[in-house]
C-alpha cells in the first residue's frame, strides 16, 4: 500500500482524532470555482469542434485542459482552506505543484474526446472515466502535500465512493454536453451551463466525499515541516485560477473575429488597467506594510523580552558570585594572610615557579586554598583567588591544578585597578593561565584605610551558554567585543562603534589574547521602516536585535529574533501586486470583452439580417464546405436550376454538369481558385428537367484565421436571355457589315469614274498645252528655214551662218522631243509628281537671227 495513501477498514478511536469545521462561504466559493472552470473548458470544446486546422485544434484543447485542470486544483485548495483543524497545517511546495499534473492531463484527454463531431458510448464512458480518475488523482496527491501535527488515514469505503462519484458525475456532465446539444441546436447555451454545473458538482462532490473519508489523527511526536501557509497558497491558487478562467473565456470570444473587436476601445482599457495597477500596488503595499509592521513590532518585543530574561538569569548568577567575593573579603583568615604581605607590598622578585611553590606549600595559605576550593565547588564559581596589594595571587581555589593562578601577577587587570581604587572591580578577560575567557569580579580588602588586596571570583563565560543558546543570544563586554555567541565565528568580533577600537594592540593582546579585533559585519535592513533590523555576519535573513545592558557586570546581552517571515512578506507583496494587477486587468478585459461582444453581437445580428436579405437576391447562391459539399442554397438558385434545398444539400456541385466541358476545364477552374481564391466565367449547366443552359458562375474561397479554406461561396446567374440577345446582335451586325461593304463598293465605282473623268480632262488640258508649246517652235523652224532661204538667195549663206541655223534648229527639235517625253511619262505608273508648264516657255530669239531680220526688213 502506498505510504501517502494509507487506507483503513476500521475507523480510529474518536479520542485520537482532530475535529474539523467547514466555512460555508468558502465551501460555496470552491464549488463556484469548479463550475466556472468547467464552463470555460466547455466553451473551448465548442470552439475546437468547429476548428479545421489541426494545430489550432491541439492548441485550444491544451488551453481547455489547462483551464479545467487548474480549476480542479484550485477548487481542492479553496476547499482545504474552508476546512479548519485545531492544529498547525502547511503544504509541501513541490508536491503541491506536482499535484496539478493529473488533473491537467485527464482534463486535456477528456476535452479531446468530447470535441469530436461524433461520440460513441465507449468514448463517452472513457472520457468520464479519465476525467473522474484525474479529479481523484489530483485530490489525493494534493492531500499528500498536507503537513500537520498528526497523521492522515482514509476510510476505504468512502475512498472508493469518492472515486465513483467523480466518474459518474463527470460522465453525466459530458453526456449532457454532447447528447442534448446534438438533439437541439437551440439549446446550446443552456446545455453548456447545465453541463458546467454538473461537472463542477463532480469535482466538488468528489472532494468533499474524499474529505469525509479522511481521518486526521493526533500525533504529539510529529513535527510540522516548513511549507507554504494554507492562506497564501489558497490566495495564489484562487488568483491564478481566476486568471486562467477569464483568459480562456476571453480567448474563446476573441476566437470569433466576426463578432469581436476591441480596437476602438484599447485606449480606455489601457487607462483602466494602468489605474488598476496603481491601486493594486498601493493596496498590496499598504496591506503587507501593516502585516510587516505588526510582525516587526511583535518580533522586536519578543527580542526585548528574551534579552531581559537572559540578562535576568545571568544577573542572578553573578549576584551570587559577587556575594562570594564579599564574604571572603570579610573573612578573618583572608585578612590575616593579607596582613602578612602588608599594604606596601611590591611584586615579588622571585621567579614565577619559585614563588608559586613557596606560596602553595605555605601552611596558612594552604588552608586558605582549601577553603577557597570548597567554596568554589559548592557555590559553582569557576575560581576564587586572593591577591595582595601588589597584584600577586597568593591563594586560589585551583592552587593544586596545573593552571593554578598562584604566583601570577594581575596588577595590570582592570578589575584589580578598580578594587585598588576602592571600587568593586569587574572585567571580561581571557585567563592568563587557564586561557579560558570569563568574567572577573573583585572585592577590595581595606584595613584602617589601607588597601591590603582583593578577593577575585571568576565565572567562565561559557557557563552562560545554556541561557544564551535558548534565545540564540550573544554577550558583549564593556568594550563592545562579543565574548559569547551561539555561532563561534562571531566571538571576539566587535560591534559597530565599539570602544575596543580605541585600545592599543598591546592592551587588546593582554585582555583578549589577540591584538586585532575584527568588526562584525552588521548591515541595516529595511531602512526607516525597520530601524532595528540588521543582517549579521553576511547572513541572508535579517534579524531584529534587542540589547539589555548590565552595567554593574560590564556585559550586554543581545537577543536577535529572525525576520524570515518579514522577508517572505516582502516577496509576497510583489506577488500579491502581480496577482491583483493581473486578475484586475483580466477582469477589465473580460468586462470590456462582454460589453463589446454584446454590442458587436447586436451589430452582427443586424448584418446577418441584411446578409440574409442579400442572400435571397436575384442571383443564385450556393455555400459549400471545404469538401465542396453543399450546405445551403437560396431561392434564386432553385429558380435557375430547378433543384430545391432538400435535393442538393449534402451533395457536391458536379450534379449540374452539362457535358459540354471536359475534365481539363474543371481542373483549370479549381487550380485558379487554389491560386487566387476566386474564379469566374461562363459555364453550361444542366437543369433538373434536363435542359442545358448557360450560366455566369463566380466561386470564391473563404479562408480561416490560419489561411486554410473553410467554405466556398458560389454566385450563379442565368445568362440564357443574354446569350440570345448576343446572337441577335451578332446577326444584325453581320447584315449591317454586308450593307456597308456593298455601299463601299458602289462608292468606289463612282470614285473610279470620277478619277477617269479627271484624267481625261487633264489629258485634254495637257494636249492643249502641248499644242500651244509646239506652235512656237514650229513657227520658229518655219522662220529659220525662211531665213536660210533668204540668205542663200542673197548669197549671204556661209558656213558659220549655216552652223548657227542648224544648232538653233536642233535646239527647237530637242525641246519638242522633251515635251513628248513629258506626255508619255504622265501616264506611266509610279511616276513622280511634276507640274506641266502651261505658259510661254520658249526662249527669246538668238542674236544670230537679228541680221537676218534686218535683211528681211530691208527688203
Characterization of the model:
The chain is α+β, with helices and mostly antiparallel strands and 859 residues long. The chain is built from 22 helices and 23 strands. The strands form six sheets. It has a six-stranded antiparallel beta sheet. Strands 9-8-12-11-10 form a five-stranded antiparallel beta sheet, sandwiched between helices. Helix 6 packs antiparallel against helix 7. The C terminus is likely disordered.
Overview in brief:
By secondary structure, the protein is of the alpha+beta class.
* Principal-axes shape call: elongated
Secondary-structure-based class equals alpha+beta
Describe the sheet with the most strands.
Answer: 6 strands, antiparallel
Counted by DSSP, the helix tally is 22
Strand order of the largest sheet: 14-13-18-17-16-15
N-to-C terminal Cα separation, in Å? 176 Å
Helix content: 55-70%
What is the strand and helix layout of this fold?
Blueprint: E1 7-8, E2 21-22, H1 24-49, H2 54-82, E3 83-84, E4 89-91, H3 93-98, H4 100-114, H5 121-144, E5 146-148, E6 150-155, H6 156-183, H7 188-212, E7 214-218, H8 230-254, H9 266-329, H10 332-341, H11 352-361, H12 363-378, E8 383-388, E9 393-396, H13 414-420, E10 425-430, E11 437-447, E12 450-460, H14 465-471, E13 474-477, E14 482-484, H15 505-512, E15 522-524, E16 533-536, E17 543-550, E18 555-562, H16 564-615, E19 620-625, E20 630-633, H17 635-641, H18 645-648, H19 663-676, E21 678-686, E22 692-703, E23 709-718, H20 720-793, H21 799-826, H22 849-858
Parallel strand pairs: 1-6
Antiparallel strand pairs: 2-3, 4-5, 6-7, 8-9, 8-12, 10-11, 11-12, 13-14, 13-18, 15-16, 16-17, 17-18, 19-20, 19-23, 21-22, 22-23
Helix pairs in contact: 1-2, 1-7, 1-8, 2-4, 2-5, 2-7, 2-8, 4-5, 5-6, 5-7, 6-7, 8-16, 9-16, 20-21, 20-22
Amino acid at each position: 500500500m502506498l505510504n501517502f495513501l494509507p487506507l483503513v477498514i476500521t475507523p480510529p478511536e474518536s479520542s485520537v482524532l482532530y475535529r474539523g469545521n467547514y466555512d460555508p462561504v468558502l465551501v460555496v466559493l470552491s464549488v463556484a470555482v469548479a463550475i466556472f472552470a468547467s464552463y470555460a473548458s466547455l466553451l473551448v470544446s465548442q470552439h475546437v469542434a468547429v476548428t479545421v486546422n489541426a494545430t489550432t485544434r491541439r492548441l485550444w484543447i491544451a488551453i481547455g485542459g489547462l483551464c479545467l485542470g487548474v480549476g480542479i486544483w484550485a477548487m481542492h485548495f479553496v476547499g482545504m482552506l474552508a476546512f479548519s483543524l485545531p492544529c498547525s497545517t502547511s503544504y509541501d511546495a513541490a508536491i503541491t505543484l506536482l499535484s496539478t499534473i493529473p488533473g491537467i492531463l485527464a482534463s486535456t484527454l477528456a476535452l479531446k474526446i468530447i470535441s469530436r463531431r461524433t461520440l460513441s458510448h465507449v468514448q463517452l464512458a472513457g472520457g468520464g472515466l479519465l476525467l473522474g480518475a484525474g479529479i481523484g488523482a489530483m485530490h489525493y496527491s494534493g492531500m499528500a502535500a498536507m503537513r500537520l501535527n498528526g497523521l492522515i488515514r482514509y476510510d476505504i469505503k468512502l475512498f472508493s465512493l469518492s472515486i465513483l462519484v467523480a466518474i459518474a458525475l463527470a460522465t453525466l456532465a459530458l453526456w449532457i454536453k454532447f447528447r442534448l446539444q446534438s438533439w437541439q441546436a437551440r439549446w446550446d447555451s443552456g446545455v453548456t451551463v447545465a453541463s458546467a454545473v454538473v461537472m463542477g458538482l463532480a469535482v466538488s462532490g468528489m472532494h468533499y466525499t474524499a474529505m469525509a473519508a479522511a481521518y486526521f489523527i493526533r500525533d504529539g511526536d510529529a513535527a510540522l515541516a516548513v511549507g507554504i501557509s494554507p492562506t497564501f497558497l489558497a490566495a495564489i491558487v484562487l488568483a491564478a485560477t481566476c486568471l486562467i478562467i477569464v483568459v480562456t473565456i476571453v480567448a474563446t470570444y476573441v476566437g470569433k473575429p466576426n463578432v469581436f473587436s476591441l480596437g476602438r476601445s484599447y485606449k480606455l482599457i489601457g487607462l483602466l488597467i494602468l489605474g488598476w495597477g496603481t491601486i493594486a500596488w498601493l493596496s498590496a503595499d499598504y496591506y503587507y506594510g501593516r502585516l510587516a509592521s505588526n510582525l516587526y513590532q511583535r518580533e522586536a518585543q519578543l527580542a526585548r523580552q528574551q534579552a531581559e530574561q537572559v540578562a535576568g538569569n545571568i544577573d542572578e548568577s553573578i549576584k551570587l558570585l559577587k556575594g562570594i567575593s564579599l564574604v571572603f573579603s570579610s573573612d578573618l583568615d583572608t585578612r590575616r594572610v593579607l596582613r602578612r604581605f602588608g599594604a606596601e607590598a611590591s611584586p615579588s622578585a622571585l621567579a614565577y615557579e619559585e614563588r608559586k611553590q613557596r606560596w602553595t606549600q605555605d601552611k596558612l595559605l594552604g588552608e586558605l586554598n582549601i577553603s577557597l576550593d570548597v567554596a568554589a565547588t559548592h557555590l559553582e564559581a569557576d575560581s576564587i583567588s586572593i591577591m595582595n596589594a601588589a597584584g600577586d595571587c597568593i591563594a586560589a581555589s585551583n592552587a593544586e591544578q596545573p593552571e593554578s593562578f598562584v604566583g601570577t601577577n594581575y596588577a595590570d587587570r582592570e578589575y584589580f585597578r578598580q578594587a585598588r581604587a576602592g571600587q568593586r572591580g569587574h572585567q571580561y578577560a581571557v585567563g592568563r593561565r587557564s586561557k579560558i575567557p570569563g568574567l572577573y569580579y573583585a572585592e577590595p580588602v581595606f584595613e584602617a584605610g589601607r588597601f591590603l588586596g582583593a578577593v577575585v571570583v571568576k565565572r567562565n563565560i561559557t557557563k552562560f551558554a545554556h541561557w544564551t543558546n535558548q534565545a540564540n543570544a550573544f554577550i558583549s563586554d564593556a568594550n563592545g567585543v562579543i565574548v559569547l555567541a551561539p555561532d563561534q565565528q562571531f566571538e571576539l568580533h566587535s560591534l559597530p562603534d565599539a570602544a575596543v577600537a580605541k585600545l592599543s594592540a598591546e592592551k587588546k593582546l593582554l585582555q583578549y589574547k589577540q591584538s586585532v579585533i575584527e568588526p562584525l559585519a552588521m548591515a541595516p535592513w529595511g531602512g526607516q521602516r525597520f530601524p532595528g533590523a540588521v543582517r549579521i555576519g553576511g547572513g541572508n535573513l535579517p534579524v531584529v536585535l534587542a540589547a539589555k545592558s548590565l552595567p554593574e557586570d560590564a556585559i550586554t546581552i543581545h537577543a536577535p529574533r529572525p525576520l524570515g517571515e518579514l522577508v517572505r512578506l516582502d516577496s509576497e507583496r510583489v506577488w500579491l501586486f502581480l496577482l491583483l494587477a493581473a486578475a484586475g486587468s483580466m477582469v477589465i478585459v473580460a468586462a470590456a470583452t462582454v460589453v463589446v461582444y454584446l454590442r458587436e453581437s447586436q451589430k452582427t445580428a443586424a448584418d446577418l439580417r441584411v446578409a440574409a436579405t442579400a442572400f435571397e437576391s436575384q442571383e443564385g447562391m450556393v455555400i459549400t464546405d471545404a469538401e465542396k459539399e453543399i450546405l445551403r442554397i437560396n431561392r434564386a438558385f432553385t429558380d435557375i436550376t430547378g433543384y430545391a434545398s432538400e435535393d442538393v444539400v449534402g451533395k457536391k456541385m458536379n450534379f449540374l454538369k452539362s457535358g459540354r466541358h471536359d475534365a481539363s476545364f474543371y481542373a483549370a477552374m479549381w487550380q485558379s481558385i487554389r491560386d487566387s481564391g476566386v474564379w469566374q466565367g461562363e459555364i453550361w449547366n444542366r437543369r433538373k428537367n434536363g435542359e442545358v443552359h448557360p450560366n455566369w458562375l463566380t466561386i470564391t474561397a473563404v479562408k480561416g484565421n490560419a489561411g486554410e479554406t473553410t467554405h466556398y461561396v458560389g454566385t450563379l446567374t442565368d445568362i440564357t436571355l443574354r446569350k440570345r440577345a448576343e446572337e441577335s446582335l451578332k446577326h444584325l451586325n453581320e447584315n449591317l457589315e454586308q450593307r456597308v461593304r456593298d455601299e463601299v463598293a458602289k462608292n468606289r465605282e463612282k470614285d473610279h469614274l470620277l478619277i477617269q473623268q479627271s484624267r481625261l480632262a487633264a489629258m485634254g488640258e495637257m494636249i492643249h498645252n502641248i499644242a500651244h508649246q509646239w506652235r512656237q517652235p514650229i513657227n520658229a523652224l518655219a522662220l529659220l528655214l525662211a531665213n536660210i532661204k533668204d540668205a542663200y538667195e542673197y548669197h549671204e549663206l556661209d558656213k558659220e551662218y549655216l552652223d548657227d541655223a542648224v544648232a538653233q534648229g536642233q535646239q527647237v527639235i530637242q525641246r519638242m522631243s522633251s515635251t513628248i517625253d513629258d506626255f508619255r511619262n504622265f501616264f506611266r505608273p509610279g511616276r513622280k509628281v511634276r507640274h506641266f508648264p502651261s505658259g510661254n516657255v520658249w526662249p527669246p530669239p538668238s542674236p544670230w537671227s537679228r541680221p537676218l531680220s534686218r535683211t528681211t526688213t530691208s527688203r
